[in-house]
Amino acid sequence: MDLAYLWFFIVGILFVGYFVLDGFDFGVGMSLPFLGKDEVSRRQVINTIGPVWDLNETWVIVAGACLFAAFPEWYATLFSGFYLALLVILLALIARGVSFEYRHQRDSLKWKRGFDRMIFWGSVLPALLWGVAVGNIVQGVPLDADHEFTGSLLTLLNPYGLWVGVTTLLLFWLHGVYFIGLKTDGQVHDDAQSLAKKLAVPTVVFAAGTVIWTVMIAAGREAPLLWAVIACGVIAALALLASVALNRADRDGKAFASGAVTIVFAVLTLWLALFPFVMPSSPDLANSLTIENASSTDLTLQIMSWAALIFLPLVLLYQGWTYWVFRKRVTRSRMEEAEAAPAH
């Protein structure tokens, strides 16, 4: 296989990893106002991702760096055309990260509530805007003959882009609620299962709409991997329905695993619908960026391939070890003990 095509799939896998891992981070942040009935329960919710949220975010840095190195023209067009949307995502991620680190630095209730709001909005905006961005990439955006984006921020706020954005928001939220149910006990655990049941119907509706709409877009472009797009969409739908059923059966671990499978195949559905383009041009496909005309030189891709072969397994081992170390539930009794402990 040509290295450019190989790296198209590698970059896709990196974004899959990011959306699965940081996806439930976003979901936990969005759940904070609904599950944090008191300070102890709020700490319980936040501490489910306390040891891992920053590690999860590194996936987007790696994915972005690989995109820049493997497909520089795609990177340039994407980050110039989607500049404002990506800037909002970056500012939201900064606000969320700062909040995790600073909310416990004072006992002031006003101080903590301010950072709680930043955690909530710092989770909602990326969850929505990542979907809007990916939806627009799949659908196609106005590009001129020099592969420059000729639209504006309003161009991105089209029906399909917004629909995909709401879908990713709901999928990440549901995924995060499953994670809270897996990692907590007591009232927070019970409330998480109840919230997941309420989110199930709108999530299924929007996810089904996204799969059908994406298949129609891919079919309209006569995508060579249309069969794979359909297959991934079906698997994502079945996994989502399974996660809903498992949550109702009080099978927290399996519900979370099924939610992860849902996001994996949902992202693959969108990614494979692109092939062989990386950024289709909506007015004229002749102006599109493709895997071949947007990729780096063979030498660059060869060096990247060796680096990935060496370092990616190490990263996966380290991340797996981190999750194993922090695998225990965040219990309410432990949070109450920490709340009662004198400050040093």
TrEMBL record:
InterPro entries, alphabetized:
Cyt-d_oxidase_su2
Entry annotated with the keyword Cell division = no
GO terms (molecular function) for this protein are: electron transfer activity; metal ion binding; oxidoreductase activity, acting on diphenols and related substances as donors, oxygen as acceptor
Q: Name one Pfam family in it.
A: Cyt_bd_oxida_II
Q: Does the keyword Repeat apply?
A: no
Its membrane topology: Multi-pass membrane protein
A single Gene Ontology biological process assigned to it is: aerobic electron transport chain
Name the source's superkingdom: Bacteria
Q: What is its EC number?
A: 1.10.3.-
Gene Ontology CC: cytochrome complex; plasma membrane
Q: Where are the transmembrane segments?
A: 6-32, 77-98, 119-140, 160-179, 199-219, 225-246, 258-279, 299-326
Subcellular locations according to the entry: Cell membrane
Residues annotated as coiled-coil are none
UniProt keywords, alphabetically: Cell membrane, Electron transport, Heme, Iron, Membrane, Metal-binding, Oxidoreductase, Transmembrane, Transmembrane helix, Transport
The family annotation for this protein states:
Belongs to the cytochrome ubiquinol oxidase subunit 2 family.
Protein name as annotated: Cytochrome d ubiquinol oxidase subunit II
Species for this entry? Microbacterium invictum
